[in-house]
Specification:
- This protein has 86 residues and is an all-alpha fold.
- It has a single domain (8-80), classed as Rossmann fold (3-Layer(aba) Sandwich).
- It is built from three helices and no strands.
- The N and C termini lie far apart (30 Å).
- The structure holds adenosine-5'-triphosphate and magnesium ion (MG).
- Adenosine-5'-triphosphate (ATP) binds at residues 9, 12-14, 20-23, 48-54, 78.
Length: 86
């Protein structure tokens, strides 16, 4: 895949909390935290593809704007499934 090709899941991933579908109670709570400037450690759980990573990245966008990438370290357990070297 060349650097110009982007997976659709990345290309169309919402970057704003308001664009995330459903999860209204989570969105409301997260927006409250952002407004208060007080973000505790958060753990999102749920079935694959329901917006956990999207929510985490949207929070980074809200906090850091265009500089979100420089302020984020993404270690995604979804990238490595069922593999162990030990
Ligand atoms: N609630 C949502 N609103 C809008 N788009 C969503 C939502 N949930 C998932 N998507 C879309 O599906 C794609 C996958 O979502 P995401 O990577 O956030 O899922 P996940 O919960 O982190 O899954 P996994 O458990 O596999 O890591 C995103 O790129 C996004 O476009
Ligand atoms: Mg994920």
């Amino acid at each position: 895949m060349s650097s110009e090709e982007v997976l659709w899941v990345e290309k169309y991933r919402p970057t704003r909390i308001d664009d995330i579908i459903d999860q209204d109670h989570v969105k409301a709570r997260v927006k409250e935290m952002l407004a208060n400037g007080n973000i505790p450690h958060l753990l999102f759980f749920g079935p694959p593809g329901t917006g956990k990573t999207t929510m985490a990245l949207a929070i980074a966008h809200e906090l850091y704007g265009d500089a979100w990438r420089e302020n984020t370290l993404e270690l995604n357990a979804s990238d490595e499934r069922g593999h162990c070297d030990d």
